[in-house]
Amino acid sequence: MNDLIPPLLADGQILAEVNGCLGLITLNRPQALNALSLGMIRDITTLLNHWAGRPEIQAVAVLGAGREGKPPAFCAGGDIRFFHQAAHAGDATLEDFFTEEYRLNHLIHNYPKPYVALMDGIVMGGGMGISQGGKLRVLSERSKLAMPETGIGLFPDVGGGWFLAQCPGHVGEWLALTGHAISAGDAIEWGLGDVFVRAEQWAALVEDLRHGEQPSAEHVVATVMERADLAPVSAPKATMDRIDQHFSQPGLAAILASLATADDEWARETHATLLKRSPTMMAVTLELVRRGRRLKLADDLRLERDLVHHAFHLRGAARSETVEGVRALAVDKDHAPRWQPASVAEVDAAEVAAFFVSPWPAAEHPLRDLS
Questions:
Q1: Contact 65, 26 (CB under 8 A)
Q2: What are 310-317's contacts with CB under 8 Å, separation 24+?
Q3: Per the domain annotation, does 371 fall within a domain?
């Protein structure tokens, strides 16, 4: 049995088990809300590639380690403090992080065996990247899903330009620009989740997957589905109507103007949220999601790889919106990012366009072989 689990290198940040036909991966960085390090990305990739070629493994499940007495977190994203340090140090492993993370996202979306994402608690950023490609995305009433990258001067990556673009109407633009967290009912309604299992059933579900009889992939899926329940009611139609009314506008300035002229609390709160985000990176984000509707996943990931390179290098680390956003949120924790420029009206269209020019010839792109 031991040869079913290859050597892992990330200091116990990933735990691997095999139960019958099921390979289980546990993200084991609970004090960091299971945020992904480069080592974790490499270990998950190693496991998935190894298990893809082993007929004994018929399905894979991924979950986050819990924190005693605290709410659960599946995965709160990438290790943003590492981003900040690596950008200032000129550390080349920053480039490796995104190349390997996006490769992992692509692998999950194209995985040849059922991949079950147990998305209990916080699922944000990189956590969405390792769950949205799953064949079965399982949520509870504790699930909180978001792509909050504009809050740190980034854009919704890990395939977010593609999977948010698949949401109905203009929900994708709303989620991408605001970073708003949604619950299980909305996630299932909008195509970002599949199955709801009540929190009171969660421990028993995980116990069954870990230690119950799991002779086939069908049995793994049945183990989840026998506990499935109706998700709590999703957002009212009025919210969808508001989202479409405002976020269908042709550009960022028009979206803000539309919200500013609406006389309701939802519009006021949404407008206030957008005024806190990086104007430049909101413009990049809006363009990404709208392009994402016309792109295949592999092409979207290649585009995101271009964008994330520019996010750190187009202006240099000293003037990067992403480095500044991480500083304000996670390093100095003053929650007062100094965006350059500070307003949407000052955003340079030429600079936004420069983000969409690849720094690599097609034959040398780090994700050139994704199909």
A1: yes
A2: 310/354, 310/355, 310/359, 311/153, 311/154, 311/155, 311/281, 311/355, 312/83, 312/87, 312/94, 313/359, 314/351, 314/354, 314/355, 317/87, 317/88, 317/90
A3: no
The question of whether 346 is a catalytic residue gets the answer no
ω into 236 cis (within 30 of 0): no
Domain extent, residue 63, equals 2-364
149 given a catalytic annotation: yes
Task: Single out the catalytic residue among 20, 23, 78, 292.
Answer: 78
Is 78 a domain residue?
yes
Its pTM stands at 0.96
Residue indicated by tokens 């949120």: 329
Tokens of 188: 């299932």
Given 64, 66, 126, 127, which residue is catalytic? 126
Q: Which residues contact 170 (CB under 8 A, 6 or more apart)?
A: 243, 244, 247, 248
- The active-site residue, picked from 157, 194, 304, 324, is 157
Report the 10 Å Cβ neighbour count for 134.
22
Reply yes or no on whether 157 is catalytic.
yes
CATH classification at residue 293:
3.90.226.10
pLDDT digits (tens, 9 = 90+) for 215-257: 999 999 999 999 999 998 887 888 999 999 999 999 999 999 9
pLDDT, one tens digit per residue, over 253-304 is 999 999 999 989 999 999 999 999 999 999 999 999 999 999 999 999 999 9
Overall domain count for the chain: 1
- 369 in a domain, yes or no? no
Choosing from 43, 79, 149, 287, the catalytic residue is 149
**Residue 57 counted as domain residue:** yes
Strands 22-27 and 14-19: antiparallel
- Count the Cβ atoms, other than its own, within 10 Å of residue 95: 16
Pairing of strands 115-119, 228-229: unpaired
